[in-house]
Hints:
single chain, mainly alpha, 11 helices
Amino acid sequence: xxxxxxxxxxxxxxxxxxxxxxxxxxxxxxxxxxxxxxxxxxxxxxxxxxxxxxxxxxxxxxxxxxxxxxxxxxxxxxxxxxxxxxxxxxxxxxxxxxxxxxxxxxxxxxxxxxxxxxxxxxxxxxxxxxxxxxxxxxxxxxxxxxxxxxxxxxxxxxxxxxxxxxxxxxxxxxxxxxxxxxxxxxxxxxxxxxxxxxxxxxxxxxxxxxxxxxxxxxxxxxxxxxxxxxxxxxxxxxxxxxxxxxxxxxxxxxxxxxxxxxxxxxxxxxxxxxxxxxxxxxxxxxxxxxxxxxxxxxxxxxxxxxxxxxxxxx
Length: 314
């Protein structure tokens, strides 16, 4: 049924990532600053050549290269459809562009023409900005995946929802509707207008919570139930110059726990980045990559200055 056209998160379907803003071939090509817009290859049925056998077994000819790009753009449209449709629906509704169609009710008009229910249309209109933002970052989200981000978007804004998806995708885990739902359910309350870095930190703590340190490698089972309790106050029975066997648990300190969380974040970041990653980013989106790299350098310098405190005299 056409009402299900935009829900394509099928089990076993490989996750598709893009190579640039909205993928290849999405923006219209405006020629000579006129109002004439040429439909890019792959965005219309007529722009995709008919199937035909290869001309040879070697390198693609220029015609084959063009056909290949058109076909890839056509397949990309399958995953761009929901946010393009959502934007189109909102534009029509906001401008009351259907007013001369003979169907004054917008929900009825959409159903009569595309068999999209009112609830589905509302959902598409609320999701398209998230889908467009993620596509601009190179991801190819499914409508059913973005649907799981709407609780975050409603409370914390679209930018927070985008940060949740982006963080999960960069963690190396396959992004699915179930994975997004699990993360969103475990997230703490994120205030509206929170910085993306705060959202990233919250998602990472859900994905990889810091493991507690074990003090002295001892467990409760190894202790005798009738052993005398150590006094919390008063004179010590331990001779001067000798250390007490019982040491304070470092995880009782909030500052130590902050160091543990920082270590987890830095370790995760070190695993996620490499020279090839930076090189490709600078090649694909040099301006954005330069800004992000500068922010990373600033954060690392801040961490370095803080860690340098261990060398300072007490």
